Each structure stands twice: as C-alpha cells, then as structure tokens.
Amino acid sequence: MDPRSLRPHYRAFLRDDRVLLTGHSHQAWPDVARAAQLEAFDDAAAHVDHKWGKAFEAADAVRAAVASRIDCAPGEVALGASTHELVTRFLSALPLRTRPRLVTTGGEFHTIHRQLSRLAEEGIEVVWVAPDPVGTLAERLAPYRDEIDRQAGADLDEGETPLGLYLQACPPRDLLARMLRNLKEIFRSQEDWPRLLAVMERLVVLLPDDMGERRDRGLVHAELGHAGQALADLQAYLEAEPLAADHGALQARVKEIADSAGL
Question: What is the DSSP annotation of 66-85?
Fold first, then answer.
C-alpha cells in the first residue's frame, strides 16, 4: 500500500507547519470520522435503543475497508473504543495460566503500563526492559525468550516467528472462552438476541470474574425487554467497575431501562 494514497483522506489534520508521527490516541483522524460521529449521533437520536443494528453494520464496513487496505480477512481486524479495551482483549488471548510471564519495555504507552502493573499484582511475572539505548534493545530482550522458542527459532530467517509460539497448549477454559466469544460477535452482528443471550449465559458462568461479560449480558437482556435481569447485570457492573470508561453512559442506560419498565 502506498501511504501517499491515504493523504487525501486526512486533509483536516495534515498541515504544512507540522509533522504527525504519533500512533496512538493522538493519531490523525480521517476526514470521514467527523461525518461518522455526526451520523452516529443522528442514529442514536432516531433509533435510541435500537441503534445497535446500524452500529454493527458500520463496524463491519470499517473492518472490511481496513482489511482491503492491509490484505487480510475482515475477521482479523479488531475494533475497540480505546487502547485500554484492545490491550485487555489482547491480554485475554494469552495463555497466562501456563506461561505466567510477560516481557515488555519501559517505553510503552501508559495503557500497557497500567494493565501489566495490575497483572503483576495478581502474580504474573512482568519483566520491564529499559528502552534506551534503542540500538541494543533487541539484544537485551533476547535473553528473555524461552529456551524452547530459541531452539525453535534457531533456523529461522530474521523476522520470522518461532514455531513454538504457535504450538503452545491452550487450557480448555481458555479455548472454550475463545469459541464462545467468536459466537458472541457473530450473533451480535446479526442482532440474534436470543442466541446471543444463550452464549452470554455460558460466558458469565465460565468467566464469573469478568464483569465485562456480565455487562454485555445485561445489554442483551435489555434488547430482549428483560428489564429486571438487565438492571441486575448492569448495576453489578457499575458497582464493580466504578472507574470504567463507560460508567456514565451505562448509568444513563440503567435509568432509561428502569424508567421504561416503571421500576
């Protein structure tokens, strides 16, 4: 992909008097983002609680567009509201029960630092490697590779991923969680609320400490008109996660559900 082909889509952010090199929350937004935010507001105002079909349709379109640019399948593109959410999802896919060690650098974005520091409190070994000098960073990271990975990668060309990383054992609980989350995304995109609820019931049982799944089950109950169950789940999430980024929006959603049900 020629990066210059993207320039016409970033006219609002690109200026002659500055150079943007960031790649996180301060990254330039494409011009279409402004129109998209206004469209999202209009959809919410027009459809209120039934806006999710439009939202999922737009998300699928974004995935497809990104995939076409980087030559991959749309299902390989993950969308998130924040770096915090994406990092949490990434970490949830790692086999930390069997390989409880993470190696990173001290120069990562603060979202990574926050998440890994919390995991360290729970007993995960987190190794922080000093980022400077950059010229020797790879050399200083190398000793932390597992012996099996060093052996598997001995005959690989530079930049290839050791086979050992692909052949790690996955605990049954983690495997089941991944399968259920795949079904979750499928049924949510199809707005198949009854089947999605069946999946969410299993996820909540499988992952009782994951309040995000409890929240999502509550939102599905709301779609199905189950006010009591929706309020129980959402209020439990709000109490357990008082600092969550979506706390304010969910408080408003709880009030809306309660008012609609006359509770």
Answer: HHHHHTS-GGG----SSHHH
Structure tokens at 80: 């998130």
Q: What domains can be seen in the chain, in order of their start residue? A: 21-76 (no CATH), 83-166 (no CATH), 172-261 (1.25.40.10)
Separation between Cα atoms, residue 226 and residue 232, nearest integer Å: 10
Helix ranges (H only) for 71-171 are 83-92, 110-121, 137-141, 147-152, 163-166
- The amino acid sitting at 168 is Q
Q: What is the pLDDT along the chain (263 residues), one digit of tens a residue?
A: 677 788 888 888 888 887 776 665 567 888 988 998 999 999 999 988 888 888 888 888 888 988 888 888 888 888 887 778 888 888 888 888 888 888 888 888 777 888 888 888 888 889 888 888 888 888 888 887 755 455 445 444 444 444 444 445 567 787 788 889 888 988 888 889 999 999 999 999 999 989 999 999 999 999 999 999 999 999 999 999 888 888 888 999 999 999 998 88
Q: Which neighbouring-strand residues pair with 125?
A: 101
Residue 127 main-chain phi, psi, to 5 deg: -105, 120
Main-chain phi, psi angles of 225, to 5 degrees: 80, 15
Nearest in space to 196 (alpha carbons), one of 230, 221, 178, 173: 221
Under 8 Å CB-to-CB from 51, ≥6 apart: which residues? 43, 44
Asked if 198 and 184 count as a contact pair (C-beta separation under 8 A), the reply is no
Is the overall model pTM greater than 0.85, yes or no?
no
Within 8 A by CB and 6+ apart from 154, the residues are none
